[in-house]
Write a structure and sequence with these properties.
- It is built from one helix and seven strands, in the order αβββββββ.
- With 129 residues, the protein is mostly beta strands.
- The chain has a single domain, classed as Sandwich (Immunoglobulin-like).
- The relative contact order is 0.22.
Length: 129
């Protein structure tokens, strides 16, 4: 039986973390709330303009893609997002893409996604005889 010992147990974790700094693609974190007739998606997109963001809706799938422009400065610590991102989300109901609205204000993307008419709840009256 062979045993392998590493003199510095955190060396590999540190190497992995440094390698991740060179990675520029990431998944955009979002919040989604559900109302009776729509979904509301919010995401932090600091520094992005409307033309830097692409939104695609197909049935119940929403895809957000874009890119944070990177500057050429060197940093001691870099936590602000940079590079391209893509996020695909499948929601629980079909969406009406024609009525969807998106806006960016103060670095926050707000996307209103109305549910399709077939997915909205209906109230049926019960008649007594």
């Amino acid at each position: 039986m062979t045993y392998f010992f590493t003199p510095y147990p955190y060396r590999q974790a540190r190497r992995w973390a440094l390698a991740q700094d060179d990675r520029h693609d990431f998944s955009l974190p979002v919040n989604i709330s559900e109302k009776e007739d729509r979904f509301v998606l919010t995401a932090l997109v600091p520094g992005l303009k409307a033309e830097d963001l692409n939104i695609r809706i197909l049935d119940d799938v929403v895809t957000l893609t874009g890119e944070f422009k990177a500057d050429e400065n060197e940093y001691v610590l870099r936590e602000l997002p940079h590079g391209s991102f893509s996020r695909t989300l499948r929601l629980s109901a079909p969406l009406d893409a024609e009525k969807a609205e998106a806006k960016i204000a103060a670095g926050v993307l707000t996307l209103h996604l109305p549910k399709a008419e077939s997915a909205r709840p209906r109230i049926i009256e019960v008649k007594a005889k």
